[in-house]
Amino acid sequence: MRSGNVCAKALRVVVILAWLTALIFIRTPAVSAQQTDDLQQQIKQLKQEYEQAIADFQKRLAALEQKAAEQRTKATEQGTKAAAPETKAVAPETKATE
User: Fold this and answer.
1) Residue 1: how many CA atoms within 13 Å on its side-chain side?
2) Nearest-CA neighbor of 17 among 9, 29, 6, 31?
3) Using one digit for the tens of pLDDT, what is the confidence trace for 73-84?
């Protein structure tokens, strides 16, 4: 009788393991599909954030480049204005020494 109980217990263990295995395989695709959807949503959100950050950086860069160009133009104009009076001052002295 003892061998009958051992076989019955072994059979129960095998049946329980089979059910657990079946449940795991049935549940796994549903979890994976949900995780895949979540990951796709996160990827989409990160791409949008990335594109927005790039657009913001491009705007900032363009504004800084424009500001730098304006400063160069202003410095050039000031340099030209500053150089012009010096040239006038030097010219009369040159005529006076001749």
Assistant:
1) 0
2) 9
3) 998 888 777 666
